[in-house]
Amino acid sequence: MKQHNLAFTRRSFLAGASAVVGAALVIPLRFEKALAQQTDAQRMPQSFIRIDTNGRVTFLLPTCEMGQGTHTGQTQILAEELGAEWSSIVVEMPKQPLPDYRIPFIGQMRSVGSFGIRYWHAPLRRAAAQAREMLTQAAAARLGVDSATLRSENGFIVHAGAGQRIPFGDLVEDAMALPVPENPTFRPDSERTLTGRAVPRLDTPAKITGRAVYSIDVQRDGMLYGAVRLAPVFSADVDSIDESSVSDMPGVVAVVRVPRGAVVVANSWWQAKQAADALNVTFTQTAADTLSTDEINSMLREALDRTDVPITTLRGNAAATLSSQGRIVEAEYSVPLLTHVSMEPINCTAESTEERTELWIGTQGHDVLRMTLERGLQVPAERLFINTTYLGGGFGRKTHGEIAHQAALASRAVGGRPVKVLWAREDDVQQGQYRQTMMCRFRAVLDDTGSITAMRIRLAGPQMGRAYGFDPERLAQVTGNLANFDPFSLSGLSDMRYVIPNFVVEHAVVDLPIPLCPWRSIAHSFNGFFFESFMDECAVAAGRDPLAFRRSHCTGQTRMLAVLDRVTEMSRWNEPAPDGIARGLAVVESYGSYVAQVVEARVGDGGIKVDQVHAAIDCGHAINPGQVETQIQGAVIDALGAALRQKVTIRDGRAEQSNFYDYPLLRIEEAPSVAVSIVEIGSPLGGVGEPGIPPLAPALANALFATSRQRVRSLPLSDHG
Length: 721
Prior knowledge:
Blueprint: H1 10-21, E1 24-29, H2 33-36, E2 47-52, E3 57-60, H3 70-82, E4 90-92, H4 121-143, E5 151-153, E6 156-159, E7 164-167, H5 168-176, H6 204-209, E8 224-230, E9 238-242, E10 252-258, E11 261-266, H7 269-278, E12 280-283, H8 293-304, E13 311-315, E14 327-335, E15 347-352, E16 357-361, H9 366-377, E17 384-388, H10 402-413, E18 419-422, H11 425-431, E19 438-446, E20 452-461, H12 472-479, H13 487-490, E21 502-509, H14 524-542, H15 546-551, H16 558-571, E22 582-590, E23 593-604, E24 607-618, H17 625-644, E25 650-651, E26 654-655, E27 673-678, H18 696-708
Parallel strand pairs: 3-4, 8-18, 16-17, 20-21, 24-27
Antiparallel strand pairs: 1-2, 2-3, 5-6, 6-7, 8-11, 9-12, 10-11, 13-21, 14-19, 15-16, 15-18, 19-20, 22-23, 23-24, 25-26
């Protein structure tokens, strides 16, 4: 890869960018040095805002739009600080995953972790303020007035006293000659009229009219189509392929060997799919050919009993967590494998030769695609170009790169012609990527007042982070944990916010021959269920109200108390529940936000029915409150479907489920009313897309206990009748 000159300066970047785009004011976005962990001279700008002489404002950011409104929120931040007309700002994404666009502490260009707003807010606002001050200074010089008498609004620099308005574009060339202010003055909060307001999404008109392009919509001249036939056992590969078995089928152009299977290329996808199903292919035998869910569960239970598991997290005295003094509360919990079932199936269009590879794909993981193609096809980064489309759902699944590798191989097999490889729903459910299955054992010691004095947690299951190149020992040092720390497994346990004097977390690692992938909210999705269910069990053992019990362990936890207070008001927790209704409570901190939920449910002959979910969130300052509300509502629906019925089970080394009939989504008539309240107490910005997931399952399980006295310790609830 071409090495960037470390003697880079901001001025040289502006000059270079201007040469590329014509006369334009270009301001790079920069992070605090503590976050970037590098000096400005060692770091190219990850992104920039650009103002052209025609007044058009463009911002280039390496975060994709997955339907959560990220680009709209980012545009609100930029427009308000700059004084631009927000709805006319153009949003672009880079076509190459170069080092410029990598999130420093992740080391990759990825759209994950609810970082879209909270991570980019400060650098975006700073760059906008810099541009505003430069345009204002240019206008002041032209008008011969003090810059303090000028305002920036709706794409103009305005001198109200003289009734003069100069468009941004007319000032660009003058502003380009000015130095970039290192410490610009931000607009005061009293002048913030755009952020904090519910505004329509920028992408909504295109989606309503059908103009929005998802990767499944991509059309290229001369395009062919590919369907996959993959090994049903995850660790298996191709033993032999008889290409002649489908060569005479209608439309078939080629059969292409890919990792773990084959792609059949044809003139239409249906022709390719019919041929892929008919293809005579045999797969290798593996040690996992007899693997089953029962065997996996036995491995996890054995891990819970190991005697050689190191302590990962320690607060206070480890010996106190094994004390027999006081009331002892113990419980074990488990969750199954889950898949993502994004609305848009997995697909990618590729045009690939030795000289150039171009992709059209809805992806969260641009650097994952780069690394996959570097390893699999020796494609250098400077020869890889990615056209990022809208994503029809991501949820972590679209961070992976196998589909890009398959499409590139298919394109090369037909001389570089464009090939769209599309997985059927069955392919993704049965040969895709999964949230890990986990078990967790708790032991708590309660004193005479019913307070938790000590807690020990043993988690059993995979370390998914290793698949992403995270070193558990290095991460332990960075996070202050003792050893063996994997945030993809332990987040929500090691960093839980309750005040418990003596606290131990251990992770008994169990490697599984199953491909793993982040699922919306990652480890918090199961650790929230584990921990908040156990807190309810402790409250029952202490003979205390679940809310009062939690509050008594929140000393100094202002944000947690604030969302608990708000959800108490919303749900009228302190009043008797309506007839036939039971309430359950949970509160979880994740991705820098705190969410408390109360589930109101009833149990009848038809099973459990959730009528209402009350959710209070502290995400700092809500840039777009309407979008915060819809994201929490969507998360509740997502989490409820998983808690009620969803699971992937393994038999003979392969997934048993295949489509929505046996991996059911929540039906519209099952969807509860979801009331959302945003708590703003001056907290730092937090994420929104994922934090609504973790509290739902434990709040539901706790409501079930309140109405039936049946304590559910494993999901989904359908397994318990």
